């Protein structure tokens, strides 16, 4: 823009000759005309003279900057205007050229500015992608943070406040918050993956709609596949945000009941809700309240698929210990390896009966899963299969910390798949040599097991049996017997009150000093030291 037409035409020609890729070059001859074009078109670079009649260049730049802080501006001026041109400095101009304009300098400056514009556009696109990605992952980020708090993860206050702000969660430290847990029932539990995500999305949307006037909600899916909601009162208008302010429990109960009724009606199925009679101070009290509600919802009978329960008193404290059935010999792995399918099925029933009889924390289901999956993987690999090949998309491998019902369904499904895999070609055939040897060892642990007695049992020469066993398993038969005896001994030391000499006899050693020597070689400590370290009497 210049009030001298010849100067405008000269600059326009210079720009066109530079082949810089401009789509449009707009020529104007006054500040008012230039401002009108700027308002109507998308302009990336403005070239303007300083001294002009009516609206001068400085006023034009000031009004442009009010509308756009990013557009590039090149200032033209004569030598006499240099001091006058300094007044445009506060308006963040991009360049300054003296009249008459040098074409080379103009093209170089325009090329530089085009590079800056391209970089800024790329940066804006990346920012847009980042914002989109953040919004897409916002539910997962909120879920992850709440799971951490429910699990007792001590997030520093400064970090927690920053995360709450970034995740747009209106929760404040040291304020009382309520909590309730939703468990989908009936056929809703059968949904998996995307279908289950859709159901849970519908439930959480309904919850936000029901609670929005009175409570802010923050929710997650926990390791039990329950939906856990934390509720914080909505502060109206100029109400003070008091530390530890009282929670309206009646309103929370009423809205939770409304949510249950609405969700069951729209989903045409049932659900259970458990909530606490008391709130918890955020965030320190969340873990204890969460544990109470989880223990409470587990007390709902399996046959009752639509409950509304308020936990008034704390369930008895769970005593943390080892799962007896999971580690009591014979282990599931050994039962499967010896082809004792009835025994393996009985072992699975023992494990799940124990998990159901005691209100174990969710972590125990995780422990059971890894132990069972380890045994299953070993058996699948023996047949040249991957465990993921033995089930459908939802029953091959499972995520960590599955729910108890999900874990039980998975365990028996894969068990039947493995049993079928091993019976495909030899369902009615006799057990193989190795299976016979292992079965005999399991049932005669406390006798004088030897290569000779085993050979007599299977009807083979001891030397042939030794070679055949080593060729099939890669280890010596005597090493297998020793290992099985020591495994049983370590279990009895930790889980029984038997004396050391009694354990020695149970695992087949009449001479106690010999047993102690072998055990020390196996575990690098004496039986008594092992028991003491395990915290047993």
Automatic annotation (TrEMBL):
Gene3D superfamilies: 3.40.50.2300, Homeodomain-like. GO terms for molecular function: DNA-binding transcription factor activity; sequence-specific DNA binding. Transmembrane segments: none annotated. GO terms for cellular component: cytoplasm. It comes from Paenibacillus rhizovicinus. This is Response regulator. SMART domains: HTH_ARAC, REC. Residues 435-533 form the HTH araC/xylS-type domain. Residues 1-114 form the Response regulatory domain. Keywords: Cytoplasm, DNA-binding, Phosphoprotein, Transcription, Transcription regulation, Two-component regulatory system.
